[in-house]
Write a structure and sequence with these properties.
245 residues, mainly alpha, 4-stranded antiparallel sheet, elongated
Amino acid sequence: MGIYSQIKEQVSTRKAAERYGYKVSRTGMMCCPFHNDRTPSMKVDQNFICFGCQEKGDVIDFTAKLFGLSPYDAAGKLIADMGLTVTSDDIPKAPPGTRQRAKRERLEKEQFEHAVSRIYNVYCDYFHLLNEWAEVHAPRSPTEEFHPLFVEAMHQRDYVEYLLDLLLYGSKEDKASVVIEKGKGVNDLERRIREFKSGDRERSSRSVVGSIAGDDGRGCEGASGNDRERPDQKLFHKRRNDPVL
């Protein structure tokens, strides 16, 4: 049996995809790494096919395209990374530095996903508070002075919802831009929300219109203190009805 046949007999495309950090659903669907795929359109089992960009092939084709390798080098990488047993006098060797590069890429991917998840969770908490403030502090008469938290809610809700949509549904470039822009200020925003929830509402009630999450160089203060992934996070930032003015 040839080398390629031995490899394909021991490892499926699905197993390789999961080994290289991709999440595969129970039905074998995953986001295609070969095009800007916002919803899972690639089916992986023994082989793979993308119903979006029409890429298809076996596990060697998948690995070769994923890492920009020749089929021969892709076979060597699979043997090394998956610990396969292949008998031949001419077993492909993984290119020098392949393991280190793959480890570095996985680490960078994990760090990026953690940053996206943390910012998303903090802004979900902030969006929840904005909705609460919009209802609780809505003026009850035409002559009543606007509460600063109501003003903040009116100014910031659309923008925060836009950020949450980018973090949840945007491309990798969209998410990276939010991480770069909001990453430094997220600690201040997290602290502000935490102060508000713990009862220090007078300090946290300062309006931050135009300076959300550190845009003015100082940052907003407060937050949730919880960067764990929520099981219902995709529904968490859906807006409530606006208050009637």
